[in-house]
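Notebook, bench 3.
Goal today: get a predicted structure for TetR/AcrR family transcriptional regulator from Phytoactinopolyspora halotolerans so we can plan the truncation constructs. The sequence was checked against the plasmid map this morning, with no discrepancies at the termini. Length recorded as 233 residues. Pasting the sequence as submitted so the record is complete.
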Amino acid sequence: MSDRDDVRRRIIDAAAALLRSDGRDAVTTRAVSAAAGVQPPTIYRLFTDMNGLLDAVASDGFARYLEQKHNLALSDDPVEDLRTGWDTHIQFGLENPAHYLLMYGQPTPGHRSEAAERALQRLRMLVERIAVAGRLLVDVETAVSMVHAAGVGLTLSFIEMPPADRDLSLIGRMRDATFAAIIATEPSSPSTVTQRAVGFKAVLDDVVDLYSPGERALLDELLDRVASKASPL
């Protein structure tokens, strides 16, 4: 690890410790620099501003949590992987509420934190695998939006409740209800128009050398139109 990386690590760890112990308001330039043993300008040189540091803290916390839970590896069952991802996401929020609120608690129009963006990219990857398997009932972006909104909304509602008031059975019930709206129990035989279009669109990223950006845009538009149909071929 270089000296720069070591200093960056110390600053993130110091900010994370303050966040866990005293909340977001305690994560100030003065407090972090004192805890990390650096001068305040170092924080701005490495993270641009305090928002950049807080984004880095949230992203680092989420990545470490996934590593500890060993949930980065994928199985042969894409639906089970999405189910694991849902449960892990909510568990992270409940076990690390301060980090989670950095990611989702104070949204800014047109801006998504680095950690939230990474989580969304992983969600999209998990959903695309279901599309490739021919089991997605809606287009990928609709499925991603539905799972994201349901999962984040449920987690934030739990965080604001006293732990004794949380009905944790909602984690599975909300998950199953959301999945039922977007995922077929088994691949249809024959596949519906929607499933075939969604599946084909999901594999286009694997063959990007076969078409130009303009051709991809036309394909996306056509497949989105086809996916809006629900009748079988």
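The two ends are 57 Å apart (CA to CA). Residues 76-227 form one domain.
Flagging this for group meeting.
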